[in-house]
Design brief:
This protein is mainly β. It has 3 helices and 44 strands. The strands form 7 sheets. The chain has a 24-stranded mixed β-sheet that branches. The chain is globular, with a radius of gyration of 26 Å. It starts with a strand and ends in a 16-residue tail after the last strand.
């Protein structure tokens, strides 16, 4: 089978293959290898020099992205209605290739295309692309039903509306995005995940009558790279300035759209990750990278009024051949760089998710590793970060811009700089959450608290209603220009932390294997007022709101039937003797709703394995 290329644009067929409207002549092919300088003044954290990031050892590019490409350039129509985000004059590029041939379409310029119901570049089986550039006012840049074994190389997306580099249905795998750049992704209207808060509330197509949108949960996910199947490769790519996220790995429990029925339910949640190497993300709002969540794969109904493809929860646990009965296969994230993202450098949920050689700088929270539930869904799995660098406040102070009012003194040298989220936002390098998490051979640099702003190398998730695992390990940690008072902070009631009364707030804990954090090898660090865990030999550290304790700690998850909700479950309903026999406390009623209880216990025995048999036991 051959190939055909259809360019749906209001022009005659004379110049279809040149990619230009009929009334415009392409620039002669001799006018190639031009250097275009794309200025990005709207990035929320503009860099102020082209040197390495303040000497802290984190690589970053210059403040402008320089793009070289080679193509038959067509000049845009001067009369094109660029003032409209959804201009009526638009079109799309469709490429169809036979299943047994690979074709290369180098140097395609796509300008001001796409529509409310279509995307500017679509393909069912797309051949390798090289040196393509898309410019302002495109609804979605490089999306659509890419199936498998496709190479996307040296492609640039700029100011797209909605997801930029986009895999749509779930079965798209073994594709490679190599050396691609996406800048300034904005909210769009096509999908719930494209939409911002206002769009989410006002566009209710496909929702069940009575639907009330929750924008931060249902929508608000526009991303530079939206990857619906983990078995894809992203190499040497960059994502900057997205309204929400740079790289987002999302899961379809079943395939959607034209791909319906191509894999069994739950397949992608267990599919091993492809290669994710040497990518970087900066100046994004929600996160540089997210590995979490799914999309709703059922139509709206009276029980779930959300429209199709709204964001929902999902859990990732990669196994060989996507088979839970076969060995686990860790998702490897190598040499990822995330800097100046307002909230997270990366939020990653597993299953086995392992980072190596990564760098995080000037983020609100450098890295959070989350598990699959109260106990990890995938037994035996853990998350880890090794051989990585965390920088709290680098020498790259940013620029004061008219639309950026989050500007204030830094903790290291008190000079003014851009700040994440808010002037008093508690900056954290490694945020410990869920578990088991292993942090090994990592360096933390320039984390320093100010009066009125807590900053720490290690911190914990705020307003945490879940659990903390005593198997959260840290070892071989190095601090550079981090006062000992800013190594750890467990939190206190106040702005951002609120009342600190949730279960996860009360049970925070991690194990300092070699004493590189606390200077007490083998110690556990616990919250200072966790009276269930601490004992007379514990040492208080007021600056950390913590206690350094010895002993053996274990975690237990219970389901209990309760008549009423209570603030604390720690000692009210059960007691465990040294031999792990339960002594029940009356009061539960089996006909009432289940409350899941997660408790960390201090036990006077080393036989902690016996606790495993009580997992999820009443």
């Amino acid at each position: 089978m051959g190939r055909r290329m259809i360019f749906t644009y209001p022009c005659s067929a004379t110049n279809i293959l040149s990619g230009c409207p009929a009334d415009q002549e392409p620039v002669p092919t001799s006018a190639v290898k031009e250097k275009w300088l794309i200025s990005t003044p709207q990035l929320s954290f503009m860099q102020n020099d082209a040197s390495p990031l303040g000497g802290e050892g984190v690589y970053r590019p210059s403040p402008q992205a320089v793009v070289w490409w080679q193509h038959p350039l067509c000049s845009p129509d001067d009369n094109f209605p660029r003032t409209s985000l959804l201009g009526a004059r638009s079109g799309s590029l469709r490429i169809y290739a036979g299943p047994h041939r690979l074709h290369q379409y180098p140097s395609i310029l796509v300008v001001a295309t796409g529509s409310k119901v279509d995307m500017p570049c679509c393909s069912a089986t797309l051949a390798p692309l090289a040196y393509s550039f898309t410019e302002e006012d495109i609804i979605v840049d490089f999306p659509c039903m890419i199936q498998e074994d496709i190479d996307v190389k040296d492609v640039v997306g700029y100011k797209t509306l909605g997801h930029c580099f986009f895999t749509e249905d779930g079965p798209e795998e073994r594709n490679t995005f190599h050396h691609c750049l996406g800048l300034m992704v904005r909210a769009g209207t096509l999908l719930p995940s494209d939409r911002n808060s206002k769009m989410c509330r006002t566009i209710t197509d496909g929702a069940y009558p009575g639907y009330v949108a929750n924008p931060r949960q249902d929508c608000s996910a526009s991303s530079t790279f939206w990857i619906a199947n983990p078995n894809n490769n992203l190499i040497n790519c960059a994502a900057a300035g997205s309204e929400e996220t740079g790289f987002w790995f999302i899961f379809h429990h079943v395939p959607t759209g034209a791909s319906e029925g191509l894999y069994s339910p739950g397949h992608t949640e267990h599919t091993p990750m492809g290669q994710f190497t040497n990518n970087r993300a900066h100046s994004n709002y929600r996160a540089g990278m997210i590995l979490d969540n799914g999309v709703k794969t059922t139509e709206a109904n009276d029980k779930d009024k959300r429209p199709l493809l709204s964001l929902i929860g999902a859990r990732y646990s990669p196994h060989q051949d996507a088979d839970l009965f076969k060995p686990r296969v860790p998702a490897i994230i190598s040499h990822f760089i995330a800097y100046k993202n307002q909230d997270h450098g990366a939020w990653l949920r597993g299953g086995d998710v392992w980072l190596d050689g990564c760098q995080f700088a000037d983020n609100g929270i450098g890295l959070t590793l989350a598990s699959g539930g109260t106990f990890p869904d995938d037994d035996g799995s853990h998350q880890q970060v090794k051989n990585s660098l965390f920088v709290g406040e680098s020498g790259n102070r940013g620029m004061l811009l008219p639309d950026n009012n989050i500007w204030g003194p830094g903790g290291s040298d008190f000079s003014s700089r851009t700040l994440p989220r808010g002037i008093d936002f508690p900056i954290r390098g490694m945020q410990i959450y869920d578990g088991p998490v292993n942090v090994q051979n990592c360096t933390f640099r320039k984390f320093a608290a100010l009066h009125g702003r807590h900053t720490s190398a290690f911190g914990f998730r705020l307003n945490n209603s879940w659990q903390s695992c005593p198997k959260n390990y840290v070892t071989n940690i190095t601090f550079d220009q981090v006062p000992i008072t800013s190594r750890v902070f467990f939190g206190e009631p106040g702005p951002w932390f609120n009342k600190m009364q949730m279960d996860g707030d009360k049970t925070t804990i991690f194990h300092d294997i070699d004493g590189s954090v606390s200077e007490y090898p083998g110690a556990f660090l616990v919250k200072e007022d966790n009276w269930l865990l601490r004992h007379p030999d514990c040492i208080d550290v007021p600056d950390w709101k913590a206690a350094i304790c010895s002993g053996h700690y274990a975690q237990l998850s219970l389901e209990h039937f309760l008549e009423i909700k209570v603030e604390s479950y720690i000692t009210r309903f059960f007691h465990i003797k040294e031999d792990f026999a339960f002594v029940e406390i009356p009061g539960g009623a089996p006909d009432h709703s289940i409350q899941v209880i997660s408790v960390t216990l201090c036990v006077e025995t080393s036989n902690l394995a016996a606790l495993h048999s009580y997992k999820n036991t009443v």
